[in-house]
Amino acid sequence: MKLLTAFLIGLIFGTGILIAGMGNPAKVLNFFDIAGTWDPSLIFVMGGALAVTIPGYLLVLGRPKPLFENGFQLPATKLIDKRLVLGSLTFGVGWGIAGFCPGGALPAMGTGRTEVLLFGVALIAGLLLARLLNRAITRPAGAARTA
């Protein structure tokens, strides 16, 4: 039941992303082109998402536990640190360059378009690079390298 629920939620999310046009990088990039062919529709997509998400979170988090888990998995900290800010900036710059965010690219992968597949490869490479950098930064000085 848990897997079926996750599948249905993902299907609804992906369908909504595609219907809203967020799988089309030109539409997203036009949102960032304020001085040119600005398309404000992304604001309405985000506003609609917030209008559903905020009451949904309030309703769900008011329960003692999720339906299919023993407890909620929420962030342990609310700290806004350098890593969070740099990660957010990197995400925003990548979104502005490619016109895709992971949420819009995943459903668009089904189209088989080359630019979407290239974005997916770049996304995975970026995740792996970030993991390597994180390990290098957080490794204590003088610690032995492991394979």
Automatic annotation (TrEMBL):
The chain crosses the membrane at residues 41-62, 83-110, 116-133. It holds the Pfam family DUF6691. The keyword Transmembrane helix applies. InterPro entries: DUF6691 (IPR046513). Keywords: Membrane, Transmembrane, Transmembrane helix. It comes from the Bacteria. This is YeeE/YedE family protein.
